[in-house]
Amino acid sequence: MSVRKLKQAAMMLFSSVLAMTSSHAWADKVLNLREGVTEVSRNAYSLHMIVLWICVVIGVVVFGAMIYSMFAHRKSKGAVAASFHESHKIEVLWTVIPFIILIALAIPATKNLLLIEDASNPDMSVKVVGYQWKWSYEYMDGDAEGVKFFSSLDKASNEARAMNSGINVANVDNYLLDVDNALVIPTGKKVRFLITANDVIHSWWVPDFGFKKDAIPGYINEAWTYVDQPGTYRGQCAELCGKDHGFMPVVVIAKEEGEYKKWAAAKKAEAEAAAAAAASDKTWSKAELMAKGAAVYGTSCAACHQANGEGTGPFPALKGSPLTTAESAAGHIDIVVNGSKTNPLMAAYGAQLNDLDLAAVITYERNSWGNDAGIVQPKDVKAAR
Amino acid sequence: MSTAHAEHEHHGAPSGLSRWLFTTNHKDIGTLYLWFSFAMLFIGGAFAMVIRLELIQPGMQWVDPNFFNSMTTMHGLVMVFGAIMPAFVGLANWLVPMMIGAPDMALPRMNNWSFWILPFAGTMLLSTMFMEGGGPNFGWTFYAPLSTTFAPESTDFFIFAVHMLGFSSIMGSINIIATIMNMRAPGMTLMKMPLFVWTWLITAFLLIAVMPVLAGAVTMMLTDRNFGTSFFDAAGGGDPVLFQHVFWFFGHPEVYIMILPAFGVVSQIIPTFSRKKLFGYSSMVYATASIAFLSFIVWAHHMFTVGMPVAGELFFLYATVLIAVPTGVKVFNWVATMWQGSLTFELPMKWALAFVILFTIGGFSGLMLGIAPVDFQYHDTYFVVAHFHYVLVTGALFSIIAAVYYWLPKWTGNMYSESLGNWHFWTSIVFVNITFFPQHFLGLAGMPRRIPDYNAAFADFNLWSSIGAFGFGLSQLLFLALIIKCIKGGQKATDEVWEGAEGLEWTIPSPAPYHTFEKAPEVK
Question: What is this structure's pTM?
Answer without folding.
Answer: 0.91
